[in-house]
Each structure stands twice: as structure tokens, then as C-alpha cells.
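User: Some background: our group keeps a shared notebook of sequences we're curious about, and every so often someone picks one and asks for a predicted structure to add to the entry. Today it's my turn. The entry only has the sequence so far, pasted here. Could you supply the structure so I can complete it?
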Amino acid sequence: MSKFVALRFLILLYFVGMAIFIVSNLRPIDLPEPVRQEARADGCVVSEESSQVHYKEGERNYEEAWIDHVNDDNTVQVTTVDTKLSLLFWIRQSGAKCFRKGSIAQVTIAECSENPEGECDFSLSHNVYIRTEPVQILNWKYKDAS
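Assistant: Of course. Here's the predicted structure to add to the notebook entry:
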């Protein structure tokens, strides 16, 4: 019986010695710092500051909008969060790849001719920007608040 105890003790001592050897030889791996590339001019990343293309006297002059539809003909439909304005617009093909359904984009209406109800009348010509792109409004509608 003492042979088995001695054998177990030697096996245990062997494993403890191997564990100590492995732990003492472990060193952290020195990885190089990742290289950060600058955003390309044609990329989809737009900083918050550059998406606010129009600022009037320090106040916010844009509104967040959900992207509802992105169509194959480079038309995109968004709905603004606060005013519930749906805009259908055409955008150039290189800009259309940056729009994904369910994402948020900033909408800036640079000039708004209001109708008697105080809403923008898009039957007139307007300067509208989505993200930083000037867009051509094809259709618009205010959704009901209900």
C-alpha cells in the first residue's frame, strides 16, 4: 500500500512541477498597436458634427430620422422622429450604399416655406440634406400623431 501512496505522490509532484514550469515561462504576448486608418471621403462614416450641415446661432437645426426603405432605384424613405415627416428622396448610387433600413440618419431642412398650418410645404423647392448629402425630394407626407 505504501508503494501506491509513493507512486501517487510522485505523479502529483510531477504534475505540480510541470504546472510551475509552465506558469513561470508564460509571458504576455506583445502585440503591435493597431493602425487606425483615416475615414475615406467616400466612406459611410459621418461624424455627428459634419452631419449637422446647417447650424443657426448655436441651435440644432437637424432632426433624427429612421430609415424606412432603401430601394434598388436609389430612392430612400425616412421618417423623422419628432415631427413624423416621411420623406422619399433620390440619392446618387455611391451615397445609397450608406443607407440601411432601421438605421438613423440626420435630416436638415435648410429652408422651409411654411403653409398656414405651420408645416413645411414641400410642393415648393427646398434645400434638404440627409446626412451630409443634398437630396432631391420626390414625395413627402406628415404622418398622423395617433
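Suggested note for the entry: The first strand starts at residue 63 and ends at 70. The chain has a mean pLDDT of 76.
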